[in-house]
Amino acid sequence: MDLWCSSTEVDEEYEKLVMRMNPPRVTIDNSSSRTATLVKVESANKQGSLLEVVQVLTDLNLTITRAYISSDGEWFMDVFHVVDQDGNKLSDVEVIDRIQQSLGTRAFGIWPLRRSVGVQAATEHTVIELIGRDRPGVLSEIFAVLADLKCNVVASEVWTHKSRMASVVYVTDEVTGLPIDDPDRLSKIKQLLSYVLKGNHDRRSANTVVSMGGTHTERRLHQMMYADRDYDREDVDGMLGDTGSDRSKPFVAVENCAEKGYSVVNIWCKDRPKLLFDTVCTLTDMQYVVFHGTVIAEGPEANQEYFIRHMDGSPVSSEAERQRLIHCLEAAIERRSSEGLRLELCSEDRMGLLSDVTRIFRENGLSVTRAEVATRGSQAMNVFYVTDASGYPVNTQTVEAVRSEIGLTILHVKDDVYSKSPPQESGLFSLGTLFRSRSEKFLFNLGLIKSCS
């Protein structure tokens, strides 16, 4: 019998043993704060634990207004102040139970990574990943090809950033409703979508992947754009390059704290949903470990502070690495920023619906900067952020013409788009505050000592 096994396998088995001996403990506290529910998570530490917790809370559509992170050594303790979509403390027993199930002892450290955009399980669908040059009408062409190939789009998410477009699309066969697994058909789908992406300008960097994979959709989009090096690109042809985005660019600082052996990341930017997930996801996928952190997002702006090291225990070691980390975090924040007017479409789902809607957008000169497509039962629940073809706000006449063509009771305009005005200079940020002792602050934040004020 061959008893040899690799060090990686030994580490994985040891990690599983530790997690089973010390399963996560989750406390839902509705009494300590007047404005938020406190979710406290304690567990044996492992790479990616923080991201998994944040991902679960985010996927439940909860807003994290504050977070205190401490994970030195083999144990971590995280405290999250969360509210529901209406800004209220959690009162829904079902939501509280789902938090306990996803993060507590029943999970045994195997937390869910797949739920996003209304997809129940990736194995129920064929997954298509697309990345290429963004241009007006490209989304319309993609959905038209899929409709022509008898593919039913169950869900999709589309991001654009610095003239690049990335999308994850979940499809089934139009007739059977099952995943598409015929090799010849999959090859044809990939070939035709590649033609659409490459066009006349992007023959080398466009890419199409068809799989049955189950990676969390939003994390996968970050990974795709990171691999595409969108953080290192400039806008081309002026697309979305002159809309004032530079004025509202996030502020990211990275400094080394020599006496503690950490690198300290400090982020100031306008707050928005899922901001914490985006920054933690990027740090995790870049192989950094967050040992301590504080997040405050109770107003229009958010401040995130992280004490990080590489997985090998070393801090950021060069100016080039520091600049790369800054650019990657800036890109992670900007990818999901809501550029454009928010349009919500709710209707009975049917084959070709997305192809028809995005065609009407294109014919009226609208460009989709971000999209979230979901199917719930027989209903299509879709959100589009649109600008004109040059990246500027859409005029009222165009919007009403599009709504009249699609249906006034089907397509609705939502004016809760985040302002593009730059953050006010409040004077709250100082590099000198980065290196003060954290022990008393963390004990207070975790509720273990009381304020003397």
Automatic annotation (TrEMBL):
Coiled-coil zones: none
ACT domain boundaries: 38-118, 127-204, 342-421
Keywords: Repeat
Top-level taxon of the source organism: Eukaryota
Listed GO MF terms: amino acid binding
Gene3D superfamilies: 3.30.70.260
InterPro entries given in the database record: ACR1-12 (IPR040217), ACT-like_dom_sf (IPR045865), ACT_dom (IPR002912)
Keyword Nucleotide-binding: no
Function: Binds amino acids.
PANTHER family cross-referenced by the UniProt entry: ACT DOMAIN-CONTAINING PROTEIN ACR, ACT DOMAIN-CONTAINING PROTEIN ACR4-RELATED
Protein name stated in the entry: ACT domain-containing protein ACR
Species in which this protein is naturally found: Aristolochia fimbriata (White veined hardy Dutchman's pipe vine)
Organism taxonomic ancestry: Eukaryota, Viridiplantae, Streptophyta, Embryophyta, Tracheophyta
